[in-house]
């Protein structure tokens, strides 16, 4: 998927020194820290004294004190293994560095979080605290203390933790050393806060991602490929957090160790991209609420960054395909849970899985810390199986133990400290993972094999010039057609030249033959004896004296003895030629067949001369002539051979040139192919990035349009309000304005403005509708009240009718009394019933000032009339309200109605009281007289 997608991430950076990484060994130091040194017997280190902590109140439970980067106190000597890797890209010593292995301990740091508000509320105190930079001490029992590489107090920022606990591992990973950083601690101790952080305080993971990209930018001489994967181990099941369908994945093993089968690996091109993937993964992670933590991680998560880098070079073979590959695991473990964690159902089940895997981790760490070659139960949990290469393999490991100082978690914190102390004893080896890329190696070997084959062919066919032509065609089939035609033309030209030379040679031979024939005619007499001699000589028969004398001066060879001396030299040269040295070939170039022939003829002449001088017989002369013929033939043959050899040699050279050209062409083609694949991968990676960007842009534009619509809605609403206010305040002039306001067409608006106006009108319409509904509601309420008033009025009328009836009775009774007593009361003395003065009525009644003539009936009637009038008024108001907008006056009207009803009731009550009083006084009067019944 992402195998070849090389991200060209490096950019020009002014800081050329940024690529320098100093790797300090985390190797065990030679002595304890200054503070603790004074507490230990001389010559004894903390390791030996650790077991005696019960006796020594200040004993510290760690054999290892100050380590590595940042701990360069003069008083704490430590082994520094430094490798300047700045020039790694250009002069990386492959085998040398690959062999570097640095033994070091797991770096263990401890981080305290502040007491939470919940713990403070509970009244928790501080049970453990950071005593200096490296010691954790118990508040309850100060003799119990543990030392680590670094202890961070509650005020330390995550950046501070990163610098000490993770930076070394991250930089090591960039240099090719596998690295693992993991956070361990009880639930709610701050693991997720440390690894992931929050927007205010970014955690180790975002900080690591940021630094990795910074290093890439600062190292322009290398090119990097970054791939990330993110998984969780939930209830011993591995889920892919980058792929929702990747559930229940299996762990497999190959030569490089265990790996998760089918896990999705995403190529990342920017920190934002990597962090967005983490954020997406976090969405899929299992979290739940416990009584300790609202957002408790219910699974272990492993965020892995695979870093590959190669030198940036034009020649792929120059770097021998050297590639640095490393993995960086950033692990946020789920928190161990105590029995105090009230959990039921699913939470309990999760808790038991978490505890089981952490227990296995503890056992594995314990076994490794013992340093003995006993069985380490890596396979007992998925977590330890995945961590196996980190814990026992070749890489750097940093353990960050998160602690809560709360006294309620004292015991759990103590357990964490013990675990951390055991982990401190585990040693790992920081090894550079440098690989020769198999693909490059294969290609290189293929090229070598091809060269060797060609050489072999060349050697095999070296002497066959004819077949060579075809073989050249066959071998060099790959060059372009133009090149082939060009080469063919050259070869044809050569052939023609060769033929020409051959023809010239043949002519010379003919001439020489003629010359020889002419000579032979003159010596025809000695032909037979010469034949005999020749035969004898040929078959090694009886040799003459002269022959013997030649023998004595000639070589051992029967054939050679008759050869001229100069020819022997040529023969020797020719033999040497077979060895194929270039200088000899040069010599042969000079030693042309013409010269050979001239040598032969001169030899022949000289032999003739010599023959005469020494007195050879005819037969001997003939033999010599025959020999000369033979030599001539031989010379011709050799000359031809020499010519051929020269030709072959030049062809060989041509072929070599062509082969070299061919090889360089192939190399170039390979390079081009490589670059093409690189460009393709780059394009695909860019496409991924582009897709992501497009997605982001889409989201942003959606948001934007959403905001725009909201804004326009708000603007419309504001304008609607304004319109509505205007509408209300200028309701009297509304009719006049109507024509202007609603005649939109006359406005000649732009479409956008028109739309806005329509929006405004719609929202105004909505407002008006709401106001209308409100008005109708108020109206219906008022109508109800009116109805009630009417009902009360009817009741009052009934009451009045009753009162009238009673009054009639009273009048009748009074008339009869007057008639009986003959003492009519003065009609002028009737009392006046005041509307609101019941007391006066009462007092009048009590004083016996009862004036029947002008009794309250009229008043009541008046009252009733008044009330009717009031009701009429009310109705008028209501109808007016119906016509106009309603705001506020209803309260006033209601009060009015209420007041009127009160008045009416008071009047009725007074009237009743008056009537009752009168009635009673009449009764008294009748009883006192004793006549009435
Ligand atoms: N160093 C710190 N400074 C301030 N607040 C912290 C610190 N560490 C943790 N917290 C707070 O403590 C609470 C618990 O932290 P966190 O969720 O990281 O714990 P955890 O160990 O991951 O818990 P669990 O194992 O249940 O997931 C969070 O509200 C977090 O903000």
UniProtKB/TrEMBL annotation:
Residues 105-426 form the Kinesin motor domain. GO terms for molecular function: ATP binding; microtubule binding; microtubule motor activity. The keyword Nucleotide-binding applies. GO terms for biological process: microtubule-based movement. The lineage of its organism: Eukaryota, Viridiplantae, Streptophyta, Embryophyta, Tracheophyta. InterPro entries: Kinesin-like_fam, Kinesin_motor_CS, Kinesin_motor_dom, Kinesin_motor_dom_sf, P-loop_NTPase. Keywords: ATP-binding, Chloroplast, Coiled coil, Microtubule, Motor protein, Nucleotide-binding, Plastid. Belongs to the TRAFAC class myosin-kinesin ATPase superfamily. Kinesin family. KIN-7 subfamily. GO terms for cellular component: microtubule. Gene3D superfamilies: Kinesin motor domain. ATP binds at residues 185-192. This is Kinesin-like protein. CDD domains: KISc_CENP_E. Residues 648-717, 768-799 form a coiled coil. It comes from the Eukaryota. PANTHER family: CENTROMERE PROTEIN E, KINESIN-LIKE PROTEIN KIN-7C, MITOCHONDRIAL ISOFORM X1.
């Amino acid at each position: 998927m992402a195998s070849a997608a090389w991200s060209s991430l490096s950019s020009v950076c002014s800081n050329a020194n940024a690529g320098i990484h100093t790797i300090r060994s985390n190797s065990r130091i030679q002595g304890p820290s200054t503070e603790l040194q004074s507490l230990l017997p001389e010559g004894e280190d903390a390791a030996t004294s650790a077991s005696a902590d019960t006796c020594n109140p200040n004993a510290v439970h760690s054999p290892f004190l100050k380590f590595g980067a940042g701990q360069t106190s003069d008083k704490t000597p430590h082994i520094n293994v430094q490798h300047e890797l700045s020039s790694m890209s250009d002069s990386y010593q492959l085998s040398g560095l690959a062999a570097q292995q640095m033994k070091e301990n797991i770096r263990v740091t401890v981080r305290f979080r502040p007491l939470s508000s919940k713990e403070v509320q509970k009244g928790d105190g501080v049970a453990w605290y950071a005593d200096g930079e490296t010691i954790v001490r118990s508040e309850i029992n100060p003799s119990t203390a543990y030392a680590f590489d670094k202890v961070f107090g509650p005020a330390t920022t995550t950046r501070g933790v990163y610098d000490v606990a993770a930076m070394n591992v991250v930089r090591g990973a960039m240099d090719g050393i596998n690295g693992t950083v993991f956070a361990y601690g009880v639930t709610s101790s701050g693991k997720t806060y440390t690894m992931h952080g929050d927007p205010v305080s970014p955690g180790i993971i975002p900080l690591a991602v940021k630094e990795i990209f910074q290093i890439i930018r600062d190292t322009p001489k290398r090119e990097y490929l970054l791939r990330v994967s993110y998984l969780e181990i939930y209830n011993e099941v591995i889920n892919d957090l980058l792929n929702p369908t990747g559930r229940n994945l299996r762990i497999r093993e190959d030569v490089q160790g265990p790996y998760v089968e089918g896990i999705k690996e995403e190529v990342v091109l920017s920190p934002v991209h990597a962090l967005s993937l983490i954020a997406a993964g976090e969405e899929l992670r299992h979290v739940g609420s416990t009584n300790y933590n609202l957002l408790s991680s219910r699974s272990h998560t492993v965020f892995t960054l695979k870093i590959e880098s190669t030198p940036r070079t034009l020649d792929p073979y120059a770097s021998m395909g050297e590639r640095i590959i490393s993995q960086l695991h950033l692990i946020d473990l789920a928190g161990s849970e105590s029995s105090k964690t009230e959990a039921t159902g699913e939470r309990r089940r999760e808790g038991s899985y978490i505890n089981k895997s952490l227990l296995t981790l503890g056992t594995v760490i314990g076994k490794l810390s013992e340093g003995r070659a006993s069985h380490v139960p890596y396979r007992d949990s998925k977590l330890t199986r995945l961590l196996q290469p980190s814990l026992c393999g070749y890489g750097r490991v940093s353990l960050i133990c998160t602690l809560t100082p709360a006294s309620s978690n004292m015991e759990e914190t103590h357990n964490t400290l013990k675990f951390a102390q055991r982990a401190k004893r585990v040693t790992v080896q920081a090894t550079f993972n440098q690989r020769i890329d198999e693909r490059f190696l294969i290609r290189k070997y293929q090229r070598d094999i091809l060269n060797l084959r060609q050489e072999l062919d060349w050697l095999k066919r070296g002497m066959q010039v004819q077949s060579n032509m075809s073989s050249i065609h066959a071998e060099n089939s790959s060059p372009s057609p133009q090149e082939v035609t060009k080469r063919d033309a050259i070869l044809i030209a050569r052939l023609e030249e060769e033929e020409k030379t051959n023809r010239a040679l043949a002519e010379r031979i003919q001439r020489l033959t003629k010359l020889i024939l002419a000579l032979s005619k003159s010596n025809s007499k000695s032909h037979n004896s010469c034949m005999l001699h020749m035969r004898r000589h040929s078959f090694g028969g009886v040799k003459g004296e002269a022959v013997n004398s030649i023998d004595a001066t000639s070589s051992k060879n029967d054939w050679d003895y008759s050869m001229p001396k100069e020819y022997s030299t040529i023969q020797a040269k020719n033999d040497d030629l077979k060895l194929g040295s270039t200088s000899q070939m040069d010599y042969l170039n000079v030693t042309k067949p013409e010269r050979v022939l001239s040598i032969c003829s001169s030899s022949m002449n000289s032999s003739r001369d010599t023959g005469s001088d020494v007195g050879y017989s005819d037969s001997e002369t003939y033999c010599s002539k025959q020999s000369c013929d033979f030599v001539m033939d031989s010379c011709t043959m050799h000359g031809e051979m020499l010519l051929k050899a020269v030709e072959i040699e030049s062809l060989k050279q041509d072929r070599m040139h062509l082969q070299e050209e061919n090889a360089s062409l192939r190399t170039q083609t390979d390079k081009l192919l490589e670059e093409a694949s690189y460009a393709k991968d780059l394009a695909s990676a860019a496409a991924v990035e582009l897709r992501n960007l497009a997605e982001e842009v889409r989201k942003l534009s959606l948001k934007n349009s959403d905001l725009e619509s909201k804004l326009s809605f708000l603007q419309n609403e504001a304008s609607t309000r304004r319109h509505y206010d205007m509408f209300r305040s200028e309701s009297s002039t509304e009719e006049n304005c109507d024509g202007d306001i609603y005649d939109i067409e006359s406005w000649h608006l732009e479409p956008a403005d028109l739309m806005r106006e329509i929006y405004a009108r719609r929202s105004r319409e909505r407002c008006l509708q709401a106001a209308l509904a409100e008005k109708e509601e108020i109206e219906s309420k008022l109508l109800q009240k009116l109805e009630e008033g009417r009902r009360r009025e009817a009741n009052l009328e009934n009451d009045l009718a009753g009162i009238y009836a009673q009054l009639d009775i009273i009048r009748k009774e009074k008339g009869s009394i007057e008639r009986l007593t003959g003492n009519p009361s003065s009609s002028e003395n009737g009392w006046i019933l005041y509307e609101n003065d019941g007391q006066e009525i009462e007092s009048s009644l009590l004083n016996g000032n009862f004036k029947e003539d002008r009794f309250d009936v009229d008043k009541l009637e008046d009252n009733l009339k008044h009330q009717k009038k009031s009701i009429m008024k009310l109705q008028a108001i209501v109808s007016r309200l119906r016509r106009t907008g309603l705001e506020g006056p209803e309260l006033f009207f209601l009060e009015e109605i209420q007041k009127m009803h009160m008045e009416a009731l008071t009047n009725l009550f007074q009237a009743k009281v008056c009537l009752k009083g009168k009635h009673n006084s009449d009764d008294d009067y009748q009883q006192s007289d004793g006549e009435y019944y």
